[in-house]
Amino acid sequence: MTQETFLIVGAGQAGGQAAQALRENGFGGRIVLVGDEAWRPYERPPLSKDVLLASSDDDCFKGWLHEARFYAASAVELRRGAVARLDTAKRLAVLTDGQALPYDKCLLATGGRARQIDQAPCGARIVSLRTLDDAMRLRGLIACSRSVAVVGGGFLGLEFAASANRRGLQVTVFEQAARLLPRALPAAVAQKLRSKHEAQGVRIALDAGALQIEAGETDVVIAGKDEGAASFDFCVVAVGQIPNDAVARASGIETGNGIVVDRYCRTSDPHVYAAGDCACFPFGEAGQPLRLESWQNAQQQAIAAARNMLGQCCAYRPTPWFWTDQYDWNIQMLGLLDAGIDRWIERPAADDKSMLIGLRGNVVVYAVAVNQGGDLRAIKRLVEQAVPVDPQQLADTSVKLRQIERQAGACGIDTPY
Fold it and tell me: Is there a shared CATH topology between the 116-237 domain and the 328-408 domain?
């Protein structure tokens, strides 16, 4: 009997996790994991925090997905290279160097790339932050600089701003919107986060408009809509990412805000699957097309895709979960902010702790917690199972969330799918 070959295109977190899940679920065939970075698979959250804050370049990164010996021990062939397209009729992956790899099933875990802005192409003093190489380059710039501009007030930009501030740099964040994180955080929480940054000395320039950016040999000069030009030692562009769907498009596979997949992570080709930042999947009962850029999605969708490649019929039904660490704050978000929320309930606590819960009717659909991530597990079950709650009890901080969960009849079953 011929041994099957499963090809994984993209050696990031999703690709590495899928290889592990295939072995853990009993696949005994050949696994080929192709990536275009020089590194073995790693997690990206440490890049904007731990890597930048480490006191020494030596061993400053500990975010490897697996120990180096995992790949040989698990018989996973880790190859360096880039796939140009798939010949789906012949089931061949054509690499950019002309080599061809046969496959029986293929997983596209190609992730995303940092979005650029026309007026600030990346160069010696204008840098994005997406890869480990980017983070190491930024370590070097931080070490020899006194000031930095951050273009983009999203989570990545703010995490970098917090890290650079802690390294002693003067930081200015330019954000085009009228407030921080309008699509990710309620206005009240976003304002608290802004105040947190400003209390540390970070300058936040909102409603910045189209920026004029000029990079010289020794500095970057930036002018916003309503203010004069200012000079910075370097600039970080953090304005989101673009899904890497070029391989799918070149292969005739359906795309649209990423690579389109069904609930089982299958693309328009029955032998090709997709997972992670590059995959756009049907979310919720209505099947809303959604692409999630998060650690959770890269991890859990990769596992679901691997199981479906093995014929286990595993629908992917996540409860979106995000987190960010800035200074001494850990902020965790559960659900989607645009979930038809018609009521907010705050559960304040002492010592920089708080929780804000969004309801649609009497059903919890969203929650954001500052330094109270442990309490989100009870909320998670309420969101997953859409069970009604008593809003008055929810607002009463003397009533534990576990008690509300039990009274609502939420089942204590955790599943990522």
Answer: no
